[in-house]
Amino acid sequence: MATRSRLPLLRSFATAVRSATRPGSPGVGDRLAALPRLIRATRSGQHAGTSVGRLAMLAVAAAYIVSPVDLLPEGALFVFGLADDAMVLSWLAAAFLTETESYLAWERGHAAPGAYAATPGTPFPSASATTGWPQDSVPGSVR
């Protein structure tokens, strides 16, 4: 019965990892950098793709993983003690990948028209790249 309850968790984790490692998807660094923005946008109500409660669950799961306090101690139960940590870690990884993927897609879709959504490592574009007009002939400009 315990194996049956772990299968959806493993399937969810595998799906999240597969989507996170596809070409063109944001890397872990980009996702970690987006986390403060995700928290701010969720708390302010701008991003409705997740809830403050879900973000709190992510924080609690991360604290559980790094905490020396454990529901099933490894010292006494060996492999079984690691199983609860592995399940929490796999849920945390899948949830983190899913939430950041959703947020980054939302963020790209809500950029102002003509705004440049900078990605790390890319130079700021010229005016012609952001407006479609050559730098010398921006509409409404006087030479």
UniProtKB/TrEMBL annotation:
- Which intervals of the chain are annotated as region Disordered? 120-143
Which Pfam family would be a valid example here? Answer: DUF1232
User: Domain DUF1232: where?
Assistant: 55-91
Q: Where in the cell is it found?
A: Endomembrane system
A cellular component term, taken from the record's GO annotations: endomembrane system
Q: Keyword set for this entry?
A: Membrane, Transmembrane, Transmembrane helix
UniProt membrane topology term: Multi-pass membrane protein
Whether Transmembrane counts among this entry's keywords is yes
Q: Does the keyword Nucleus apply?
A: no
Q: What is this protein called?
A: DUF1232 domain-containing protein
Question: Which organism is this entry from?
Answer: Nostocoides jenkinsii Ben 74
